[in-house]
Amino acid sequence: MSTNPTKQGRLNSKVAIVTGAASGIGKGTALLFAEEGAKLVLVDLHEDKLNEVAAEIREEGGSCEIVCGNVGLMATAERAVARAVDVYGRLDILFNNAGIMPVGDILDYPEETWDEVLQVNLKSMFLMCKKAIPEMLKGNGGSIINTSSVMASLTEPGYTAYSASKAGIIGLTKEIAVSYAEKGIRCNAISPGWVETDMNVRLADSLGGMDKLYPIIKQQQPLGRMATTREIAYAVLFLASDESVVVNGSNLSIDGAASAAI
Fold first, then answer.
1. Could you list the active site residues?
2. Could you write out the three-class secondary structure of the chain?
3. Which InterPro entries match (predicted)?
């Protein structure tokens, strides 16, 4: 975890759960949250990588706990929220970020793969919110941030379940926002475009290397490059912090102008 000389302690005394924290946007956000003073519960299915992130945070003086499990199961949501409350006494922030992206045409797409994508990408957020909101209501409210995608509204062939799940996330986000706004809970979504994640590295490998992927990125994302995970994390930090106290029910596009292009 590199030292950030501009850190301001924007999450001091806050307790946050981050799902999908072992890599990509989840890891980048967990590291930034720790730099800004948050106490963390990190959730992921990949225990070895999760322990590596936790070690990096602790080496820099941060405080974190880990929960290894499938976010699509109620038991994992229960364990994560219970760990936050048992260890830190409260829960202020939930970053629902875990997701998977199997690709395939709808005619060939296995029903079990559809179910898995919807379980991990969308149902997990329902489960985490269901368990987190009661604890947030015991305090002064809280901030929930859900990772959707530019592909919730702009898609391409092969992303059958992924696009459907990411569109559902935006609907869930808005419903929670309007239901709990008066009780001090905010719920917002982020919609990244191309980001430097392990998922996109694997996609590049399947196409024959990053050189094959970058012309596609340049065509789709006017920025001309992928965003870094830390660049995405700064947007999540804003939504998690008290600086965004009146931002609720929004979907923040973080896509290098991809959603603005023809």
1. 162
2. CCCCCCCCCCCCCCEEEEECCCCHHHHHHHHHHHHCCCEEEEEECCHHHHHHHHHHHHHCCCEEEEEECCCCCHHHHHHHHHHHHHHHCCCCEEEECCCCCCCECCCCCCHHHHHHHHHHHHHHHHHHHHHHHHHHHHCCCEEEEEECCHHHCCCCCCEHHHHHHHHHHHHHHHHHHHHHHHHCEEEEEEEECCECCHHHHHHHHHHCCHHHHHHHHHHHCCCCCCECHHHHHHHHHHHHCHHHCCCCCCEEEECCCHHHCC
3. NAD(P)-bd_dom_sf (IPR036291), Sc_DH/Rdtase_CS (IPR020904), SDR_DHRS6-like (IPR051122), SDR_fam (IPR002347)
Q: Which fold has domain 15-192+227-254?
A: Rossmann fold (3.40.50)
Other CB atoms within a 10 A radius of the CB of residue 154 amount to 15
141 residue type, one letter: G
| Structure token digits, residue 97 | 């970020």
pTM, rounded to two decimals: 0.93
Residue 19 in tokens: 């799902």
Residue 158 has pLDDT above 60, yes or no: yes
Question: Nearest-CA neighbor of 66 among 74, 78, 75, 79?
Answer: 79
Nearest to 31 by CA among 3, 68, 69, 71: 3
222 or 159, higher pLDDT: 159
* Rounded average pLDDT over 252-259: 90
pLDDT, mean over the chain:
93
- Say what the pLDDT of residue 163 is: 97
Residue 126 main-chain phi, psi, to 5 deg: -60, -45
Q: What is the pLDDT of residues 47-67, one digit of tens each?
A: 999 999 999 999 999 999 999
Task: Say how far apart CA 26 and CA 229 lie, in whole Å.
Answer: 8
CB-based contact 144:186 (threshold 8 Å): yes
